[in-house]
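User: New here, any thoughts?
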Amino acid sequence: MDRRTTLKWVLAAGASVPTLMAHATPSSRTPAPGAGYGPDPDLTPSYPKGHLWPLLLSDAEKRTARVLCDLIIPADDISPSASEVGVVEFLDEWLSAPYPTQLKDRQVVRDGFAWLNSHSRQRFKHDFADLNLSQHVDICDAICDVAKAAPDLETAAEFFARLRLLIAGGFYSTPVGRRDLGYIGNVALTSFEGPPEELLQQLGLAQS
C-alpha cells in the first residue's frame, strides 16, 4: 500500500484537523503576553495573511516544511502535492495560533525541524531542505514509525508522527484533498431518497 493510500485510510477513519484556514501578518488585536488569547476569531469572512495572529515560522522552517509536505503527500496522477495546495501556509497558521493545542504542536514541530537540520548536517553536511531525495528518505524512514524507532530517535519519531497528521489534515481538508478521498459531502441535494438498499442490507436494516 502506498503512502497516499495509507493516509486516505487514516483520514477516512476519523483523524481530523480543523479546515485549512485563510492565509494569514501581525494584528493589532493580538493580545499581550499573559493576557490570554482572547475570543476566537470570526472565521466567516476571508482574512488577509497574518491578520488573526502573527505568523511565526521562519523562511528556513517553511523550506523544511515544504520538503516534508511533499515527502509525505507527493504529487501523483490524481492530485498535486501537499505544498502545492497550501499546506505549508496551513502549518504556519496552525503553529502560530495562540491556543493550547497549537502551542504544544508549535514546540514539537519547531524542535523537530531543528533536530532534522542538526541531524542532516551531522550526517550529510547540509540542512535537511538542501539534501537530495534519497537522503530525505533515508532520514525519514528511520523516524516514520514510533514503535520501530531506535531509542535515541523516539522523540524525533513522535515529532514526525504529529507533523504527518497535521499535513494530512491540512491536505485532506482542501477541495483537492476531499476529491482525492472521494468525499461527497457538503453538496446540496434537491431530494433525498434514503440510503441505498444494498447498504441497508449490509447493515441488517433492510425491510423484509
User: Anything to note?
Assistant: Residues 3-29+42-202 form one domain. The chain has a mean pLDDT of 85. The helical segments are 3-12, 59-72, 87-96, 100-124, 133-141, 154-172, 175-181, 197-202. The chain is about 50% helix and 0% strand.
